[in-house]
Design a protein that fits this description.
Blueprint: E1 8-12, H1 17-27, E2 34-38, E3 44-48, E4 56-60, H2 67-82, E5 87-92, H3 111-122, E6 126-130, E7 145-148, H4 151-161, E8 166-170, H5 176-186, E9 189-199, E10 202-209, E11 216-224, H6 228-239, E12 244-252, H7 258-264, E13 269-273, E14 285-288, H8 291-302
Parallel strand pairs: 1-4, 4-5, 5-6, 6-7, 8-9, 8-11, 11-12, 12-13, 13-14
Antiparallel strand pairs: 2-3, 9-10
Helix pairs in contact: 1-8, 2-3
Length: about 325
């Protein structure tokens, strides 16, 4: 292997600038230089301000809506491909548009599949992401996907809380697998919420399956968007006799009135990662840093080493 091939470089998309800097610091290399030219009509052009020829590069950027975040990742991958980078790894702490992973009614797109193909066409040769909304999205790619679990950083924090009579809860049926995985590691009980929606982001009915009387409950989910489901579940559990309710959600989308709902809810604490920057501060929201996890995995990928030790579940 030549000296050039041994080099790895990390570049940020603008939406994940701080996280990319923290990852570069944890990796032990300087963050690469990127310039973004803005046109008056909203068009933009990213450019690498240093050579990437023959190197492995990591482009760090979550693709939460709006669409500019996804577009920037695609343009960065294309620029790297056209600049003769040897390997182009798209590091996407949050893989956006993942809720559209199937046709749940006629005449709708499968956006997650389309985005996978767009990333590959743009030049990505590998994907590193965390807590996909649906595991099967990995199968939409023809390139390697390293799917990390935020449980790697959440579970040590939960163990440090040393909560007595701990119960893990899923806010919906779809998250039951995740809840059972947490409960197995923490040796706790599990309860599940069953919900019905009137439409997207609007719950018409919720029921609790299991007993939370005098329990310290931790709700587990992959994302918190409007916080409607999460806060509804937390309030329901307190009504059913829970001693306390916390929530662990990997991706803090927190759109609409989410911050107000969290503040006014029975939640004692909402624990999230920094995959998406918070729009505002909240005394109830605790952010667990993910930079060290990503840096360790990226370093292992670059040196062709196993990353299985990074999976706690």
């Amino acid at each position: 292997m030549s000296e050039t091939e041994k080099i790895a470089k990390i570049f940020p998309c603008s939406q994940s600038q701080q996280l990319a800097q923290e990852i570069a610091d944890a990796y032990g290399i300087p963050l690469g230089k990127v310039n973004r030219l803005e046109f008056s009509d909203g068009e933009f052009q990213p450019s690498f301000e240093e050579s990437v020829r023959g190197t492995r590069i990591f482009i760090v950027g979550s693709t939460h809506p709006g669409s500019e975040n996804l577009m920037e990742m695609l343009l960065m991958c294309d620029a790297a491909k056209r600049s003769s980078a040897r390997h182009i790894t798209a590091v996407m702490p949050y893989f956006g548009w993942a809720r559209q992973d199937r046709k749940d009614k006629p005449r709708v797109p499968i956006a997650a599949k389309m985005i996978a193909k767009m990333l590959e066409t743009a030049g990505a040769t590998r994907i590193i992401t965390m807590d996909l909304h649906a595991d099967q999205i990995q199968g939409f790619f023809e390139k390697p996907v390293d799917h990390l679990f935020a449980s790697t950083i959440f579970l040590p924090y939960l163990k440090e809380l040393n909560l007595e009579d701990l119960t893990i809860a899923s806010p919906d049926m779809g998250g039951s697998k995740r809840a059972y995985a947490y409960s197995k590691y923490l040796e706790s009980d599990v309860v599940i919420c069953y919900k019905q929606r009137a439409k997207a982001n609007l719950i018409s009915h919720m029921e609790l399956i299991g007993d939370v009387t005098d329990k310290n409950v931790v709700l587990v989910d992959d994302m918190v968007d409007t916080a409607g489901t999460l806060t509804h579940a937390a309030n329901l559990m307190m009504e059913r006799g829970a001693r306390s309710v916390r929530a662990v959600c990997t991706h803090p989308i927190l759109s609409g009135k989410a911050y107000e709902r969290v503040e006014e809810s029975a939640l004692e604490e909402l624990i999230v990662t920094d995959s998406i920057p918070l729009r505002q501060e909240s005394k109830k929201i605790r952010v667990i840093k993910s930079a060290e996890l990503f840096a360790d995995v990226m370093k292992a990928v670059h040196h062709n080493k196993s990353i299985s030790s990074k999976f706690l579940m």
